[in-house]
Design goal:
Layout (H helix, E strand, L loop, with lengths): L18 E4 L23 H17 L3 E4 L16 E4 L2 E4 L10 H11 L4 E3 L11 E3 L4 E5 L5 H11 L3 E5 L12 E5 L2 E4 L6 H10 L4 E2 L2 H4 L7 E2 L3 E5 L3 H9 L3 E5 L2 H4 L10 E2 L2
Parallel strand pairs: 1-2, 4-5, 7-8, 10-11, 13-14
Antiparallel strand pairs: 1-15, 3-4, 6-7, 9-10, 12-13
The chain binds arginine.
Length: 278
């Protein structure tokens, strides 16, 4: 596995056009708690969530990306978190198999959409995995989280199906229950992450693979600042992550702040709402 080009502060970054799949949060609610962010007693406002989600979608369109939509299903309040629906790489989709019964039905719904929209090879996974929530794809490697949701056996299953090397990373802080709450790819073979979310061994792996990574502090992580989407240049990121936003700017990236405060009540941010179709 090669360690890819170094990121230098102030370097010129190039954006690549992306294809995203999103799901309008019409049925969004916090009615159960499957992560520490969720408080059913406090609830959430679907109308406000839709407004914030529309702004996210508009931000992608303004950046020149393509956004496809999957119909939301009543009774699946977390379906807005499209990232969890699958892992799509090289035109093949590794289907999600959710850890919690509240979300089981989302896996087949996303698989069906993918089959109907030109992805001919969709694998119904044997092992528990929550799609791009726990699988983040770089050019030469796929980083995979485990510890709370996705099983290590799923990492191996995905590697075999996709023919790409998958590196297991262990998550240890329940606030960062999916890999995409603690790390995001920057393009150019680099990543940004919050070290405190990972086991000591996984931290050492990240240091070895990404000696030039952008490291985020706890304050930025605690507002889900790592749940960001980078197209190689622009970084769509929670507006509250001010420290990380400034760091990204210093490194030549163009932050695009968004307000996802309502969706954060379910433990989600911009990346959770976004499945990339590669
Ligand atoms: N409430 C959802 C859950 O706990 C949030 C999922 C967020 N998605 C993500 N890709 N991190 O499953």
């Amino acid at each position: 596995m090669s360690v890819l080009p170094v990121t230098e502060p102030g370097a010129v970054r190039t954006a690549l056009r992306r294809r995203y799949l999103m799901c309008r949060p019409e049925h969004f609610a916090v009615t159960y708690a499957i992560n520490p962010w969720m408080d059913p007693a406090a609830g959430a406002d679907a109308g406000k969530a839709v407004e914030q989600w529309e702004a996210l979608r508009a931000a992608y369109l303004a950046l020149g990306h393509e956004v496809s939509l999957i119909d939301p299903i009543e009774g699946l309040p977390d379906m807005v978190f499209a990232a969890n629906g699958a892992l799509v790489v090289g035109g093949r989709a590794y289907g999600a198999r959710f850890a919690h019964p509240e979300r089981y039905a989302e896996g087949p719904a996303y698989a069906k959409w993918l089959r109907q929209n030109g992805v001919s090879e969709v694998l119904d996974a044997e092992y528990t995995n929550e799609g791009e929530g726990d699988f983040l794809t770089l050019d030469h490697v796929i980083l995979a989280g485990t510890g709370f949701r996705t099983e290590v056996a799923a990492h191996q299953e995905a590697q075999e199906f996709l023919g790409r090397p998958v590196v297991t990373l262990r998550l240890v802080d329940p606030r960062f229950y999916h890999l995409d709450t603690a790390l995001f790819p920057l393009g150019g073979g680099n990543v940004a992450y919050y070290p405190g979310a990972f086991s000591p061994g996984s931290r050492a792996v990240l240091e070895r693979l990404f000696p030039d990574a952008i490291l985020a502090g706890e304050q930025d992580a605690a507002v889900l600042g790592l749940n960001a989407v980078c197209d190689g240049r622009n970084v769509v990121i929670n507006a509250e992550a001010v420290g990380l936003t400034a760091t990204l700017r210093r490194h030549g990236y163009e932050p695009v702040p968004v307000d996802m405060s309502e969706l954060r009540k379910a433990g989600g941010g911009p990346k959770c709402c976004t499945l990339e179709l590669r």
